[in-house]
Amino acid sequence: MQEHEIIFEAFLEKQGLKYTKARKLILEIVFKLHEHFDVEYLYDLIHQVSKDVSRATVYRTIPLMVEAGLIQRSVRSESRDKYEHIYGHPRHSHWVCKNCGLVIETDIQDLMKLVQSEAKTQNFQIDEVNLTVRGICWKCRNNANESQ
Amino acid sequence: MQEHEIIFEAFLEKQGLKYTKARKLILEIVFKLHEHFDVEYLYDLIHQVSKDVSRATVYRTIPLMVEAGLIQRSVRSESRDKYEHIYGHPRHSHWVCKNCGLVIETDIQDLMKLVQSEAKTQNFQIDEVNLTVRGICWKCRNNANESQ
DNA sequence: CTCTTATTGAGAATGAATCTCATTTAACAG
DNA sequence: CTGTTAAATGAGATTCATTCTCAATAAGAG
Questions:
Q1: Is domain B90-148 in CATH 3.50.50.60, yes or no?
Q2: What is the pLDDT confidence band of residue B72, given thresholds at 50, 70 and 90?
Q3: Is residue B15's beta carbon less than 7 angstroms from any atom in nucleic acid strand D?
């Protein structure tokens, strides 16, 4: 059994909840993904494998995975919430292009030092750090220049 | 005329748009606020002053103020988008306590240096920077300890 | 004033996310 | 294996922030 499964099952047990077939399948598909995903995209993938999992169950399972520390709500693109793995993934920033929707990720080791020192001053217990920069990516900037 | 008005009017003119009564009032109320606000809250305030501005116009004016560099979309609380001034306000981070909902803001001059250098490397044009840290504030940590 | 174009209010439409409820399933004791 | 209890589920209704439509109005140029 993979590590994320162990964590999820332990989490569910602790909450008096059950590790059902639907939850198992959702978790599995989520951890096969390596990009950010929204619920609709996830639901489509799940549906390709099994018609027996409803959209409602997918929506219901996501907050459980969040609470278990496996994924987090990430950038919000268009109008949909997006999610991403946090278990086993180093913290990173998101650079979102307003024009083409591209999301670039970069390491935030340096930033984390600043944040941790501030947290110490404030006596704040950090659970999540989210750095998002919005703007225009180099591709779209080039295209804009060319078309002038 | 206040500086934010000059900026907004210039922005509108440049776009071939008009600085109407409704837009003037919305801008005025927004710049009287010193907290984060969502559209519903803003609309309520505006409605107290004038019944002649519709919700639709408030929704339509917000992206204009964002484009003009006057406000930005900030943290998202519950299901609503929140906004905050950026013109005349130094960039800052948000420290959100998951327990009591407290939002602390801190300066991010040091962070901005990192972000700007990364942007240069990437040739990315920055429009918005948002650093949000979620966790437990010192007060709630103390309370938790006491009650054990 | 006249013309053109942007703006507006009201309410309909959209669409992501949540909720309801009747049915099914898991877990476990006997 | 059987019965019991509580959790889980699917389908579709509902909610609610946001966007859109469209007919009426207002701004601004000439």
A1: no
A2: confident
A3: no
A130 HSE (CA, 13 A, CB side): 25
Whether residue B148 lies within 8 A of chain A, CB to CB, comes out as no
How much is the mean pLDDT over chain B? 88
Contact B49, B29 (CB under 8 A): yes
B75 within 8 A of B36, measured Cβ to Cβ: yes
Rounded distance, CA B2 to CA B86, Å?
A: 15
Q: Which positions in strand C are less than 7 Å from the protein's CB atoms?
A: 5-11, 15-20, 25-27
With tokens 């002038």, the residue in question is A148
Helix axes B21-32, B39-49, angle to 10 degrees: 110
The token pair at B6 is 């000059």
CATH assignment of B1-89, given 1.10.10.10, 3.90.228.20, 2.60.40.420, 1.10.287.470? 1.10.10.10
- Over the stretch A87-137, which tens digit does the pLDDT of each residue have? 877 778 888 887 777 888 888 888 888 899 999 999 999 877 888 888 889
As a whole number of angstroms, the distance between CA B72 and CA B83 comes to 6
Quick check: B65 and B17 in contact, CB under 8 A? no
